[in-house]
Write a structure and sequence with these properties.
By secondary structure, the chain is α/β, with parallel strands linked by helices. It is built from 10 helices and 7 strands. 40% of the residues lie in helices and 11% in strands. Helix 2 links the parallel strand 2 and strand 3. It is globular. The mean pLDDT is 94.
Length: 285
């Protein structure tokens, strides 16, 4: 395996700021050319400040959508993402807050709809993880925090979005390869990602009569601030090398999946689907 698949062995402080990463991710969609697939629409992206969320925000903007970016406290990252959205000629709104709290999650949805004037697409994308060596290390507090962040927020945001999403609207959830096959070092995280998959299936059925499509993207390893913020140096340096392709994805490679699900032109007959860009891995069943 060539050395260019390895990332610099380093860690950064949580929740993770892009500027602290020794190797910057490709997350600005610089080579992406939009064609109006989301013209006139408005989207809220949770965890939109960096990584996959940033790439999705910029791709949506290049396709013609105004974008609200919800994030925890990474103000510098959020400001940069907003500048990229505005450079694409679209309106950007930044909404800080802890979405693991119900009132904040619901408030962010309403603020996004108010400031953008409408809400057509919701991307539930925030995530929290803490790797462990043994199951015994998983505490009730960690379990609760992971579930509140990774799945409760998806429920709260989706539930509140029903006040705003029109016929033809879309909800897109971010899951993970770990929700499809588990991960012994990310037990609580894997459990939430499996819950997201089931939530997607069930909500797609529940909202079909409202003509609101619900789909999910479940990526394999993706180089984002979450990785050096939650893993040790050795795991960081080897991140993604276990895939058949032999490397982690960059956020720019994942974002087009979200454009596909957001666009009625591209995916009007897709609901309750899980799209898994996982670097060539195949799963049984």
């Amino acid at each position: 395996m060539s050395d260019d698949t390895a990332f610099p062995p380093h860690t950064i402080s949580e929740p993770g700021h892009t500027s602290e990463m020794e190797e910057q991710p490709r997350d600005e969609m610089g080579d992406y050319a939009g064609s109006g697939k989301l013209e006139g629409r408005a989207a809220l992206i949770t965890g939109g400040d960096s990584g996959i969320g940033r790439a999705v925000a910029v791709a949506f903007a290049k396709e013609g959508a105004d974008v609200a970016i919800a994030y925890l406290s990474e103000h510098d990252d959020a400001k940069h993402t907003a500048s990229l959205v505005e450079a694409a000629g679209r309106k950007a709104v930044t909404l800080p807050g802890d979405l693991s709290e119900e009132a904040t999650a619901r408030g962010v949805v309403n603020d996004a709809a108010e400031q953008l004037g409408r809400l057509d697409v919701l991307v539930n994308n925030i995530a929290y993880q803490t790797p462990v060596e043994t199951f015994e290390e998983v505490t009730s507090e960690e379990w609760d925090k992971t579930f509140k962040t990774n799945i409760y927020s998806f429920y709260w945001c989706s539930h509140e979005a029903m006040k705003h999403l029109p016929e033809g609207g879309a909800i897109i959830n971010t899951s993970s390869i770990n929700g499809l096959r588990g991960n012994k070092s990310l037990i609580d995280y894997s459990a939430t990602k499996g819950a997201i998959n089931a939530f997607t299936y069930a909500l797609a059925q529940a909202l079909a009569d409202k003509s609101i499509r619900v789909n999910c993207v479940a990526p394999g390893p993706v180089w984002t601030p979450l990785i050096p913020a939650t893993m040790d140096e050795e795991k960081v340096s080897q991140f993604g090398q276990e895939t058949p392709i032999g490397r982690a994805a960059q956020p720019d490679e994942i974002a087009p999946s979200y454009v596909f699900f957001a666009s009625n032109q591209l995916s009007s007959y897709y609901s309750g689907e899980i799209l898994a860009p996982i670097g060539g891995e195949t799963l049984p069943g």
